[in-house]
Structures are given as structure tokens and as C-alpha cells.
Amino acid sequence: MTHTKMDVSASLTPSAGTHETVYRTLIEVDNVDFYYGQSKALHDINLKIPEKMVTSFIGPSGCGKSTLLRCLNRMNDLIDGTRVGKGEIRIDGVNIYSPDVDVIELRKRVGMVFQKSNPFPKSIYENIIYGLRIQGINNKSLFNEVVEKSLRGAALWDEVKDRLHESALGMSGGQMQRLCIARAIAVNPEIILMDEPCSALDPIATMKIEELIHELKRQFTIVIVTHNMQQAGRCSDFTAFYYIGKLIEFDRTEKIFTNPAQKQTEDYITGRFG
Amino acid sequence: MQLLDQQLAKIREQLLMMASLVDRNLNAAMRSLVERDDKLAELVEAEDSQIDQMEIAIDEMVVKFMATHGPIAQDCRLMLVSSKISNNLERIADQAVAISRRARELNTQPMLKPLIDIPRMAQVAQEMLRDSLTALADKKPELTLEIKSRDKSVDEINKQIARELTSFMLEDPATITRALNLMLVARCIERIADHAKNIAEEVYFLYRAQDIRHGNGVGEAVAVE
Prior knowledge:
A: about 270 residues, alpha/beta, 4-stranded antiparallel beta sheet, 11 helices, globular, B: mainly alpha
């Protein structure tokens, strides 16, 4: 199957002969161009990201995958001179670039975990409840509940339950990254964006994050940028391949990693370029 | 050429070298039967261990490549298919040894009958094998499309040979040993055709990512794209 612009969204329905599951689209990227100043970083991107699934973005450095990820919760707004040139990004049908959208509310719905873990120089407990505190909540029993629930959700509770009030900076790299995931889920988002969350972690910590991603997709829609092809293959249900600012192919991960439709995709995933 | 491609090329090269040895042994085994040449039969038996070693070497290369490169897509299929093809080739070589052994026994006695159907059957099986390997080497999966139907014709010749040799045995019990040896040879060729068909299916899977074994996918009515 050759993927044209229209095919990209059509491929969300599994091909004939498999179960006729139709996925509900949560995020819809519709004809989006994106600019850093005069430089066009994304060209006419069309993508439908299904709800409660893991979608990975892959592609060589500079292909625009992180740029698109940051568009999904308007993190790019923080960079001067950036703009969405045309098109819309809709979450649940609402254009998130519409002037009446509250960006703070948007980022509550769309949490983010970065490449380098960035815990605040506070206790583990305070890191988790930070999002609630800045919302003006001050309810100790709610805090306790959220801390335990979030740390359990991030598969970290058993490791830190006896040192919740110690500094988060004393944790290992893998634990810090899971703490950041716990902090992201503490505010109960719908979507979690992950920008190369395991690139600084050892294989054991990476495996824990991947297991966690597998668990989290029951509750959240996850979009992950990764340079690790095996990780994209293991973790995600859908994969989008980008090259020089264009979406080349989007399909079920199994299809992308066994029999991609585009030669560029195959050359990239098999390590022949990029 | 990248290191990755160099290593893949080495595996393909080893596989094709093994295939060429197997084809030569199979040819020699059939000549030892038709030309009643014991020396050729002995040569086939002596060279079999080299083919066994090549099968092991290919599996080692495959395991090493998988462990170090984590192959994806067609590279991944090439690993799986290389191991399976080398296994089928090794089993064809074993059948060639079995034919040689039967030939040496048959050569100690007068010919039961002129050999017509068995060489014809062997020719079909060898062509099936060669076409499968050409499809592999030249990356032309469409060459494998007819091979399944040729396997059926080999099965038919085998049945016909079995009927004919049974009538010899019923007529004259003195022919039983020779007739049974010839039936075993025919059975070996039938197995060789099965292995050639297996190789064809693997080659199709390698290049088209579609599993056509056991009537799956496009099955016997493979549509030419």
C-alpha cells in the first residue's frame, strides 16, 4: 500500500483480514505547517493519533518529530519566532491553537516528559504534588492519595515509599525519569508526550520505563519520540516516520517494522541512513 | 558498502555457495544411479559433511547478526529465511546421500528396467531447486510462483513409479530388492521437491513479506502482481 496524504489517516483501521477495530482519534493533526522564523520545519503534516494507544515518532535528527511533539501541547509557544503557518491541531475536536484556548489548561491535559529528567530540587513528595499546589489546592489527604497513586502508577512506590520526604535529586537516573512520569500523571492528564525518555538511561531503567509505558496506555494516550528503533517496535502500537519535516509513513508499528510501504522508511529503520 | 550490508552479503554468499554444493551433489547422486558409477556415489557421501558444516556456519552467522544488529523488516526476514533455507538445503543433501547409497546397492545387480521416469522426476525436482535459488539470488520472487504446481507433478510421477514397481514385484519376487531401492530413490526425489518448494515459499516471504505456506495468503493460486 502506498501512503498518500489521505492514506495516512485511513491506515488507522487495520487492513482487511485482521480484526475490524476502528480506533477513536484523540489528536488530529490537520495540514500543519510549522516555522522557526522563516525556516519551515514541518510540511503539511496530517496525522490521526488514536486514543489510549502508544504512538511513536521516529526519524533522523532534524526531521521535525520533536517539533511536532511540542506542537501537541504548545510548548513551542515558549520559543520566540515560532508559529504554526497553516492547519490545525485538534484534541477531541477542539483546535488547540484557537485564541480562546487556555494554554495552562491544555498543558494539564497534555503532560510531558523530557529527554533529561528534570525533577525540582524538592522532596519526592513535593515534586509529585507540585502541579496540584500551583493549582491552589492544599489538601493533605488528597496530596497523600495522589502521591501514592502517581508513584504506584509510575512503578516507583515500592522503591521510594520510605523516603518520600528526601530530595528527589538523590534518586538514580531511571528513578528520576519515573518520578517525572509520576509528576506528569499526578494532574490526571489525558495525553502524555515523551521526548526520548530513555536516551540517558541504562538498559534496566529503560526496560522499566517501557514496561511502565505499556501499563500507562490503559489510562492515557501516549506519544513518544525515540531514536531507538527497537524501543519504538517494542513500545508502540502505531509509528510515524518523518524525514526532513515531512511525514513519510504512518501505520501500525508491526507493519512499519516488518514490511514498510515506503523505501525511505525501510532504509531508515534498517540503519541504512539517518 | 556499510558494515551492515557487508555482513548481509556474506550470509547470502555463504547460502548460495552451500546451494551450489548441494546442487552439484544432487546431480552427482543422480549420475551415480543413471551411469552406474560408484565413485560418484562415494564422492557425494564424502562431501556431505562439508554441507553439514556450512549449515552450522550459516546459523552461527545468523545468530551473530541478530544479536549484534537487531535486524528489522527485510533484514529480519533474511535472517529467518537464511536459516530455514540452509536447513532445507542440508536435508536435500541428505537425500542425495540416500540416493547414492541406493545407487551403490543397485549397481551390484543388473538393471531392473531402463531408467526413464526417475531421471525425469529428478530433473523436475532439480529445476524447482534451481529456480528457487535463482529467485533468491536475483531477488525475483515471481519466479517461485509456479513451483508449487511442479511439486504436484513430482508427486504424481512418484505415484506412477510406485505402481509400476509394485507390478514388477508382484510378477517376480526376485525383483523386490531392486524395485524397493528404486522406490526409495523416487521417494528421496519426492522429498527433494518438497524441500525445493519450501525454499520457494521462503524466498517469496523474504521479498514480498507474505507467508504462502500451507495454503496461506495467495496460496496455490498465486496471483502475478
